[in-house]
Amino acid sequence: MRVAILGAGSIGGFVGGCWQAAGLDISFIGRPAFARDIARHGLVLSDYDGWSATLPAADVAYGIDPATLADADLIVLCVKSGATGDAARQVADHARPGTAVLSLQNGISNVDVLREILGPGFPVFRGMVPFNVAYLGNGQFHKGVAGQLYADDVPAMRQLSAAIGPSPAAVNLSQDMLGIAWGKLLINLNNAINALSGQPLLPELRNRGYRRVFAASMREGLTLLKSAGIRPAKVGAVGPRLLPWVIAAPDLLFNSLFLKGWKIDDRARSSMADDLARGRKTEVDFINGEVVGLAERLGRDAPVNRRIVALVNAAENGAGPLQPDALCRAALGRQR
């Protein structure tokens, strides 16, 4: 199976690198800066548990030309959600009809966008990435949070999962990928909180003020999902209905009991925090904005997530990090 990673940034670089280390034939398509770094240093992979692997530069097919898609049996889409339409058109222009497409993107609506643009000629499958990857420079991609990938339980994905085997980027299969996607999105609501805090994940999560905003955004999302008849799946050790109560627990309880069980290392940070740090447009419209959009479709409001979207938009335009009390006031209308 020849696999092309389209949008091989932090997630795509790590996932594709792990799959190549497992023996798959991988080509990477991404930004020139990544191509230059990997050409100089190779592809260096590591995770929170001490695992590491290095692929020599000469063995890594990392380029910037989407014409590479013509050789792929499977295209794995890792572009930011705002670039989904452009990526779909690249697939349509360069890939062979019938090539399977797996979306490993944040949010809910990307699969619908892909299917609308690509039509029936390209089977599109939903995937889910439960972990964060930080690019540390010099070709090194670091997985800082525990978790394994999920994908639709269909023959093409079964073949992929079997080919990868045990790996830091192993693929589990599910027949409820929409439920898993919503379960993951509820957890991803913290991406914006982490970005607005200006801190790595661990110190942000250790602070109850930040967690209260996270929990409030989750409760709002859960209320709307119930009204819409959507059941989010359990992603991780705690189910979605219980998770807001765990998140909002007092610091002593949360930090000593819950956070210790979540495998997060000191270098982990959200992709949204990375985007803000690099001056790039974030995916907040496809994470918290999905909750706002669901509320609008139901004729309701989602004030917490709507305010968080506005705060991230302000940060994209230069606003600085927010302390816990300031974020509580801005997002919840009260102090912690």
TrEMBL record:
<dbReference type="GO" id="GO:0015940">
    <property type="term" value="P:pantothenate biosynthetic process"/>
</dbReference>
<keyword id="KW-0560">Oxidoreductase</keyword>
<dbReference type="InterPro" id="IPR050838">
    <property type="entry name" value="Ketopantoate_reductase"/>
</dbReference>
<comment type="pathway">
    <text>Cofactor biosynthesis; (R)-pantothenate biosynthesis; (R)-pantoate from 3-methyl-2-oxobutanoate: step 2/2.</text>
</comment>
<comment type="similarity">
    <text>Belongs to the ketopantoate reductase family.</text>
</comment>
<feature type="domain" description="Ketopantoate reductase C-terminal">
    <location>
        <begin position="176"/>
        <end position="315"/>
    </location>
</feature>
<dbReference type="InterPro" id="IPR013328">
    <property type="entry name" value="6PGD_dom2"/>
</dbReference>
<protein>
    <recommendedName>
        <fullName>2-dehydropantoate 2-reductase</fullName>
        <ecNumber>1.1.1.169</ecNumber>
    </recommendedName>
</protein>
<dbReference type="InterPro" id="IPR036291">
    <property type="entry name" value="NAD(P)-bd_dom_sf"/>
</dbReference>
<dbReference type="Pfam" id="PF08546">
    <property type="entry name" value="ApbA_C"/>
</dbReference>
<comment type="function">
    <text>Catalyzes the NADPH-dependent reduction of ketopantoate into pantoic acid.</text>
</comment>
<dbReference type="GO" id="GO:0008677">
    <property type="term" value="F:2-dehydropantoate 2-reductase activity"/>
</dbReference>
<dbReference type="GO" id="GO:0005737">
    <property type="term" value="C:cytoplasm"/>
</dbReference>
<keyword id="KW-0566">Pantothenate biosynthesis</keyword>
<keyword id="KW-0521">NADP</keyword>
<dbReference type="InterPro" id="IPR013752">
    <property type="entry name" value="KPA_reductase"/>
</dbReference>
<dbReference type="Pfam" id="PF02558">
    <property type="entry name" value="ApbA"/>
</dbReference>
<dbReference type="GO" id="GO:0050661">
    <property type="term" value="F:NADP binding"/>
</dbReference>
<dbReference type="InterPro" id="IPR008927">
    <property type="entry name" value="6-PGluconate_DH-like_C_sf"/>
</dbReference>
<dbReference type="InterPro" id="IPR003710">
    <property type="entry name" value="ApbA"/>
</dbReference>
<dbReference type="InterPro" id="IPR013332">
    <property type="entry name" value="KPR_N"/>
</dbReference>
<feature type="domain" description="Ketopantoate reductase N-terminal">
    <location>
        <begin position="3"/>
        <end position="151"/>
    </location>
</feature>
